[in-house]
Amino acid sequence: MGSAPPSDDSGTRPRPPSVVGRGAPVTAEPSPSLQLHSWRRLDWRFLLPALGDGPVVLAGRPDEELRAALPLLGLPVHRVTSDQDWEAVGGTASLVVLIDPTPKDLGSATGACRPGASVYAEVRRSLCRLQGPWTLMGWRRAFAAAGLEEVSAHWHARTIDRSARIIPVEARGAMRHALAQHQGSWLRRILAATARAAVGVGLLPALIPEGSVVGRYPEVAEGAGKNLVERVLAENVDRLGLSAVGLGAALETAFLTPRFVTSRHVVVLVYAKGESRPRLVVKVPRQPDDSRGVRREADMMRRLAALLGPDRLRVPAVLGTVACDGLSLLVESAIRGAVLTPPQAHRHFRTVLAAGTSFIGALPVVRPAGENADWYGPAVERPLARLAEIAPLAGETAALCARTHELLAPLRSVPLPAVFEHGDLAFPNLYFGGRDTRLGVIDWERSTTSGVPGHDLVFFLQFVSESRWSASTWPAQVAAFRDAFVGPDAWAVPVLREHLRHRGVDPTSWGRLVVMTWARTSATLADRLVLDEDRDDLCPSAAVEAAVRLERETRLWRLAVELAERGELGDRAGSA
After folding, report:
1. Which terms does the record give in the GO molecular function aspect (predicted)?
2. How many CB atoms are closer than 10 A to CB 161?
C-alpha cells in the first residue's frame, strides 16, 4: 500500500484531485463520519501486494459507493469510458480496477499498466453475455491469457456487495474452514456440507456466482507475495518466529471483512498450504493512521500474559506488530476450535455458561479495591461525557447520562477492584469446541486493565440469553434481557451475584452494575465511530448520531435505566 501522504494542519490527510481522461470525473468523497463505511468498499485492496503511487484507473460499471471511496486512497484516479480515455492513461497506471468488465476492458487494462502494476476485477457469472468469459474461473483464465502473472481468483462470500469473507478459490483448506463455520439451521448445514464435498472434488470454484480476480503486469519484484499480508510475513519470517507455529514459505490466506458499523479492521487467516486450520491471524486496520486498535490489543495481550503466565487462558499469543505502508499489522497465533455461534450457545447452554463464567472469573485483578477508590471518573464519568459531546442527540444523551449517574450514585464512593476486562464477550469473539474444553476469546482491542467487576459477565450473559431466544430483532432482545435479569425467575441473576461475591463486591449491587455495563459499552461508541480519538474539537455528525441512536448497546442502556428507575432491575433492598 502506498506511503501515506503527510497530514495538513487540520489533521486530515490531503486528497489529490481526481485525474481523468475524457471520462466522467471521480470527485465524490465521503464525509469524515462516513469514511469508515466507505473504507469497507476498499477491503479488496489487501489482496494486492502494494498500491503503488498511482494513478488508479477505474473502468467498467463501477457503483457509486466505489466511486466515492476510491479518493480515500490518496492517489489520482482516472475514470475511463472510451478508447480515447484508455489511450490517455497508457502505460501509467499502478492499479486498474474493473467492475463487471468486458473482454475488451481487460485488454485495455493491460495496456494501461506500467511494469509491476496490479489489475483487480469484480466479476459476476452471466450466461446472457454475448462474449465470454461467463464465470469467475473463466475470467481467471482470461487474465492469464492476457499476459498477467500470479493470477488469483477469490470468492466473496456470500456476495461482493455483502461479503464477510474473501477466500482464494485455490486455497481448499481455507474454503473447508470457512464452510465448517456454518452452524445455523439444518438447511444451512446441509448446504455447507454439500459445498465442502464440492471443495473436495474441486468443483466449488465452478459454482461460485461472483468474486474477484487479481493479476499483475510482468516485471514484479522478485520474492513479492501475492498480497500485502503474505508479503509482510515473507519479509519477517525470522522476526515473527513463524516456524514456531508451523509456517514456512508455502502458505495461504483468507480475508474476513466484517460488515458491522463499528468494524475498523480486516482479519486475515493464515494457513499452511493445504490445511483447513489457520495457524495465524493478522489484523489490518481498514484506514490509514488508524493503528491505535491493533497497538492497544498487542499491549493488552502482553500485559495479560505477564499477569497470568502462559496457558492460563485460551487466548491468542502476540507474535509481533509490523509497520508497513502506513499501517500497523498485528500478528497473533490462531485459536483452535470454531467460532461460538448463537445456535451453538443455545444447544450447549449449560456447558457454554460454565465455560464463560470460568473464563471471566479467571481474569486477574489488577488493583485491589483499597487502591482503586477513584475508579468512577475514568471508568464511567469521563467516557459518558465524551459520548454526550460526540453524539448529543439534541440533549437526549446528556439526559440519559444524568439519569445513569443518579442511579449509580450509591456506588460512586464504594472502592471496587480494577479487573482485567475484555469488553466484548459475544459472537464472533468466542471460540468453543476442539480438544480444549475451555472458552477461547479473541479480539482484545477494547480491553482495559481498569475494568469494573461484573461488566464482562453481564455482556456475556446477555449474549447467551439472546442466543436462547434467537434474538435477531429488538423485541426479542428485550425479551432476552428480561428473561435473564428481570423478575424472580431471572436465570442470570444468581450467576451474576455469585461472581460479585467472588470479586469481593456487594452482590446486591448487581442491578446497578447491569446499568453501568451498558452505559460504559455505549460510551465506547464515541471512539469506535470516530477515527481521531485525540482531537478535542470533534463536532457531532448526523451519521455518528444515527449510529449511536440505533446501536443495540445504546438501546440496552436505555432499557436498563428505565427498568432500574421503575424498581424492576436489582434487589429492592440494596440495589435499584
Report:
1. transferase activity
2. 11
Cell of 292: 491505535
Domain match, 39 and 27 both: yes
Distance CA 135, CA 124 (A): 7
CB 470, CB 346: distance < 8 Å:
yes
User: DSSP letter at 5?
Assistant: P
Domain with residue 530: its CATH number is 3.90.1200
Asked whether residue 217 falls in the same domain as residue 233, the answer is no
Q: Please check whether residue 533 lies inside any domain of the structure.
A: yes
Query: Residue 550 burial (CB < 10 Å; 0-12/13-18/19+)?
Result: exposed
Phi then psi dihedrals of residue 233, to 5 deg = -65, -40
Q: What is the pLDDT of residues 300-329, one digit of tens each?
A: 999 999 999 766 899 999 999 999 888 899
Question: Structural domain tally of the chain?
Answer: 3
CB of 521 within 8 A of CB of 560? no
Report the side by side order of strands in the sheet with 210-216.
Answer: 77-79, 56-60, 93-99, 113-124, 210-216, 149-157, 165-168, 251-256, 265-272, 280-285, 327-333, 318-324
Is there a single domain that holds both residue 533 and residue 473?
A: yes
Q: Give the domain-ending residue among 275, 308, 334.
A: 334
Same domain, 109 and 149: yes
**CB–CB of 165/256 below 8 Å?**
yes
In a domain, 367, yes or no: yes
- The β-bridge partners of 118 are 95, 216
Q: What is the pLDDT of residue 537?
A: 44
What is the C-alpha to C-alpha distance for residues 497 and 520, in angstroms, rounded to an integer? 20
Residue 282 contacts by C-beta under 8 Å, 6 or more apart in sequence?
A: 229, 232, 233, 267, 268, 270, 329, 330, 331, 332
Using CA atoms, how far apart are residues 403 and 481, in angstroms rounded to an integer?
20
Burial class (CB in 10 A: 0-12, 13-18, 19+), 238: exposed
CA 353, 359, 363, 369 torsion: positive or negative? positive
Cβ atoms < 10 Å from Cβ of 188: 12
Same domain, 3 and 96: yes
d(CA 466, CA 481): 8
Asked if 214 and 151 touch (Cβ cutoff 8 Å), the reply is yes
- pTM value is 0.83
Tens of pLDDT, residues 207-264: 788 999 999 998 755 545 579 999 899 999 999 999 889 898 789 999 999 888 788 8
292's CB contacts (< 8 A; 6+ apart) are 533
Is the same domain home to 290 and 406? no
Element spanning 8, H or E: none
CA distance 449 to 304: 9
What residue numbers bound the domain in which 500 lies?
A: 338-565
346 and 492 in one domain? yes
